[in-house]
Design brief:
By secondary structure, the chain is an alpha/beta fold. It is built from seven helices and four strands. A four-stranded mixed β-sheet has the order 1-2-3-4, with helices on both faces. Helix 2 runs parallel beside helix 4 and helix 5 packs across helix 6. The termini are far apart.
């Protein structure tokens, strides 16, 4: 009995490595974001209805200046989530700078934070109504967005220029004239003015002394009386 139990547990352990493990929706999202850093199309390996040429087929409908990315994921990417959540997470991983065409299995959705609200969703709904498979729907969605942009050109965002610092004025040192460069009349006026000031000061000092002597004399006279 113990031998059979050991064989059973060993078989379960081996099978745990042989049975393929499921890939979570988060894995598909992170793989798509990483791939879209260098390309505008991502087709997850093993997505039903796709082959090695599907990615190149989708790229032929995208221009180098397009802000559109196309993604195809297998149906199990929807496990525990929904189309809108996947599209929003991929958009956030791309800094919300792209218009997204997403196909998960046969379900498709258009999502764009850079177009007016509802435009991407409407263009994908129209594409799905005239398409028989998700690849055709993504191609038609791309064409619909291109046509809409022709009729409604979007302003090209421009980087805000950094303010140019105002240069400070260069300080020019004041150069005083040398003695031999000062004109003679200036010295004459300077000397005359100097003596006038000295004379005024002398007169004021003499008046102050005379007044002090006068006040002292009057004070003495008053004491004697």
């Amino acid at each position: 009995m113990k031998y059979l139990l050991k064989v059973f547990l060993l078989s379960v352990f081996v099978l745990s490595f042989l049975i393929p493990r499921g890939v979570s929706a988060g894995d598909y999202v992170s793989d798509a974001i990483e791939a879209l850093q260098h390309s505008n199309v991502y087709v997850a390996p093993g997505t039903p209805g796709t082959n090695s040429e599907t990615s190149d087929q989708l790229k032929t409908f995208l221009g180098s200046s397009d802000n559109i990315v196309l993604i195809m994921l297998p149906p199990d990417a929807l496990t525990g989530t929904d189309l809108t959540s996947i599209a929003q997470k991929i958009s956030a991983g791309l800094d919300d700078r792209k218009t997204i065409g997403l196909a998960v299995g046969r379900d498709v959705i258009g999502f764009s934070p850079i177009l007016p609200t509802g435009i991407a969703s409407d263009k994908m709904s129209r594409a799905k109504s005239v398409s028989n498979d998700p690849i055709t729907a993504l191609i038609t969605f791309t064409q619909n967005v291109h046509l809409w942009l022709v009729d409604n050109p979007q302003p090209i965002p421009t980087a805000t220029p950094e303010p140019t610092p105002t240069p400070r004025p260069t300080m020019v040192p004041i150069v005083l004239p040398k003695t031999n460069e000062v004109p003679l009349p200036f010295w004459g006026v300077f000397v005359i003015g100097f003596f006038i000031i000295i004379a005024i000061l002398a007169v004021q000092i003499k008046k102050a002394r005379d007044k002090s002597k006068y006040d002292s004399l009057m004070s003495q006279i008053n004491k004697d009386n």
